[in-house]
């Protein structure tokens, strides 16, 4: 089997304007970035405003191993499969961060014969949206420190500044915690986050248009005064400049798949401290373009307890869009891991051989995780199709056991996905199952109403989605909830910040943890994005590099082609 980049580079790309024309995008609605990438102007929504929406499918997953279970591969494969059976399809996914690309995780363009192309550009700078977010974010930081240096007329409390700087690298060891201002500035402790953890990235994904983007940027809280009043970007008079730096970033990027179907790649917020979903504007454009008989396949970060829950409760609230079906990705190896047996699974390390051998006992013990995630989807009243992402070591008996267990748990169907090895041809059965599921009765509902008290919203997510017995608010968290409610933010949705490696807050608890108490040590606000995020455990907002970063293998050959990029 060729590497991902070798497969990608073997495909002759079509001019992006041909992909756009096939999708129904007019030439004057494109801003070309070379021959194989383009941005799409938001004015297209005005032209398409009276056209009915297509079917809206979200791809999520069970609780993954640290290696990931092929969720993006399945997202692309499903799209290719739908195209193969004659359905009009547009895929909407997030843009990856450069940090993980050169660190541990790798890229986000899919893999094998289910990829977005050009995968090199996709995984690197693309059209510069992440850089725009970084510079707009750091502009606000510069204005803030300049204000402190020039007299601090707003009486900002230096100990109550929550706006750090950002960089799109895995540079935790040097930048997570720093002292700034040692030259001629105002000396204080601060730090860096990775760019995709910026609130501006979450805003970019949730804004409905440029005017909405401007309003949201103006609501961002940077710090608090000595008497506890919030200080926003509007107060520092930098919201306008920040929006100017983001004016092109709000336009979705158009790329193509390995089988020449259109893909919108737009925004890339973290799924831990942010909502972990691609942009609303891309989804809205795509749903209009495919029309009532077409399909839009999008993907939410991590498992159904993380990105999917936020997709429903945050993104669908903001967009008003109604999902038709959820695809829940599962892998045999992850389910074996959820048996709780002491398997060794770590990025950069050989996979534990026991996970590659048939073991129906371990698989049966780990099925509880899949059952809980099916239950989580059904909490929202949406049909769910389980996609078993096939690896070469999976046996027929193992896949049969998972399929039967998934349907018993309440899935509308459970289908093998072989898109990595076979492209769209390996996902036609999955595509057919999704079409059938989208025709089933859907009773979509939010998990909680807007007017539910913030503490009860947190408790509802913890008990119903995670399976916790209750929550435990530390004093700081209680204080913040009262402060936010008093400040008029009580109707905002909740964006839980916790590990993605367990249904609980503890990454070592596998399977389906029960009767645990979810600790909430702090609660913070993203007023511009429009959500409250409780912190459950220690959340890293800038990753570090491993002993042997993935970037060690990346290079350029004598012909100027990128090599070693997965």
CATH superfamily of the largest domain: P-loop containing nucleotide triphosphate hydrolases
Largest sheet: 12 strands, mixed
CATH class of the largest domain: Alpha Beta
CATH third-level topology of the largest domain: Rossmann fold
Amount of helix: 25-40%
| Poorly predicted residue ranges | none
| Structural domain count | 3
Q: Tell me, rounded to a whole number, the average pLDDT.
A: 95
Structure description:
- This protein is of the alpha/beta class and 566 residues long.
- Strands 1, 2, 3, 4, 5, 6, 14, 15, 16, 17, 18 and 19 form a twelve-stranded mixed beta sheet that branches.
- The longest helix is centred in the first third of the chain and has 21 residues, at 129-149.
- It has three domains: 4-127 and 249-341 and 354-438, P-loop containing nucleotide triphosphate hydrolases (Rossmann fold, 3-Layer(aba) Sandwich); 129-242, Domain 2, N(10)-formyltetrahydrofolate synthetase; 454-535, Formyltetrahydrofolate synthetase, domain 3, CATH 3.10.410.10.
- The two termini are 13 Å apart.
């Amino acid at each position: 089997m060729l590497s991902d980049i070798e497969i990608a580079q073997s495909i002759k790309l079509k001019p992006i304007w041909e992909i756009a024309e096939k999708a129904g995008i007019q030439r004057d609605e494109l801003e070309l970035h070379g021959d194989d990438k383009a941005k799409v102007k938001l004015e297209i929504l005005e032209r398409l405003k009276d056209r009915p929406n297509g079917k809206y499918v979200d791809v999520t997953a069970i609780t993954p191993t640290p290696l990931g279970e092929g969720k993006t591969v399945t997202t692309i494969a499903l799209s290719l499969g739908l195209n193969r059976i004659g359905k009009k399809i547009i895929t909407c996914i997030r843009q990856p961060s450069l940090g993980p690309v050169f660190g541990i995780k790798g890229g986000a363009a899919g893999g094998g014969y289910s990829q977005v192309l050009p995968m090199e550009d996709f995984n690197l700078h693309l059209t510069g949206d992440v850089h725009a977010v970084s510079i707009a974010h750091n502009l606000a930081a510069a204005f803030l420190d300049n204000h402190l240096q020039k007299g601090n007329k707003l009486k900002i409390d230096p100990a109550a500044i929550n706006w750090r700087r950002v960089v799109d690298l895995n540079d935790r060891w040097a930048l997570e915690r720093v002292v700034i201002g040692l030259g001629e500035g105002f000396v204080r402790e601060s730090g860096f986050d990775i760019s995709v953890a910026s609130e501006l990235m979450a805003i970019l994904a949730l804004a409905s248009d440029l005017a909405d983007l401007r309003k949201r940027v103006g609501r961002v809280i940077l710090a608090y005064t000595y008497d506890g009043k919030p200080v926003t970007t509007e107060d520092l008079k930098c919201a306008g400049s920040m929006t100017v730096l983001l004016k092109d970033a709000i336009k979705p990027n158009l790329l193509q798949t390995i089988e020449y179907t259109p893909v919108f790649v737009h925004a890339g917020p973290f799924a831990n401290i942010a909502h972990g979903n691609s942009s609303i504007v891309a989804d809205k454009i795509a749903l209009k373009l495919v029309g009532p008989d077409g399909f839009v396949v999008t993907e939410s970060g991590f498992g159904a307890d993380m990105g999917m829950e936020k997709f429903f409760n945050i993104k669908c609230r903001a967009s008003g869009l109604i999902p038709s079906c959820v695809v829940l990705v599962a892998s045999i190896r992850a389910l074996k891991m959820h048996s709780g047996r002491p398997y060794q699974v770590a990025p950069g390390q050989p996979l534990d051989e026991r996970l590659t051998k048939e073991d129906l006992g371990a698989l049966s013990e780990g099925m509880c995780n899949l059952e809980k995630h099916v239950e989580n989807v059904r909490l929202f009243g949406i049909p769910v199709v389980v996609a078993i992402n096939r690896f070469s070591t999976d046996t027929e008996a193992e896949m049969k056991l998972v399929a039967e267990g998934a349907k018993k748990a309440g899935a509308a169907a459970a289908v093998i996905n072989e898109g990595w090895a076979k492209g769209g041809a390996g996902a036609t059965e999955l595509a057919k199952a999704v079409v059938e599921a989208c025709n089933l009765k859907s009773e979509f509902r939010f998990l909680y109403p807007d007017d539910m008290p913030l503490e009860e919203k947190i408790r509802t997510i913890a008990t119903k989605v995670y399976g916790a017995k209750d929550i435990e608010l530390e004093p700081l968290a209680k204080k913040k909830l009262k402060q936010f409610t008093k400040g008029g933010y009580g109707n905002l949705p909740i964006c839980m910040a916790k590990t993605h490696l367990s249904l609980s807050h503890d990454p070592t608890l596998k399977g389906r943890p029960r009767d645990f108490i979810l600790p909430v040590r702090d609660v913070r606000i993203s007023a511009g994005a429009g959500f409250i995020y409780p912190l459950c455990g220690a959340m890293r907002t800038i990753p570090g590099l491993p002993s042997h970063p993935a970037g060690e293998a990346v290079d350029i050959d004598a012909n100027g082609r990128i090599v070693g990029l997965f």
